[in-house]
Design brief:
By secondary structure, this protein is mainly α. About 40% of the residues lie in helices and about 0% in strands. It binds iron/sulfur cluster. The site of iron/sulfur cluster (SF4) has 15 residues, from helix 1 and helix 2. It is found in: Cytoplasm.
Length: about 80
């Protein structure tokens, strides 16, 4: 995530991505997401982050998932 939401959430103060290069979370098409996802796996607010991205349809890496992965998660949830 990039922290530029219109309404920042309190949990964002604990976001690990706020401490590193924000470009990692917005790789070019076909670029690696591995480093960002590795940081997300250690992030204490991963669940909140993922929930927000699913709710708001954010771009980039959020909660350790890519946009495509979140799209598949939503499709699976809607089909269930
Ligand atoms: S889960 Fe990843 S994108 Fe979300 S706040 Fe944590 S480090 Fe940032």
């Amino acid at each position: 995530m990039d922290g530029t939401l219109a309404r920042p959430e309190p949990w964002m103060a604990n976001a690990l991505c706020a401490q590193v290069d924000g470009d990692l979370w917005f790789p070019d098409k076909g670029g690696s997401t591995r480093e960002a996802k590795a940081i997300c796996r250690r992030c204490p607010v991963r669940a909140q982050c993922l929930a927000l991205a699913l709710e708001q349809g954010e771009t980039g890496i959020w909660g350790g998932t890519s946009e495509n992965e979140r799209r598949r998660m939503k499709t699976s949830a809607e089909a269930a």
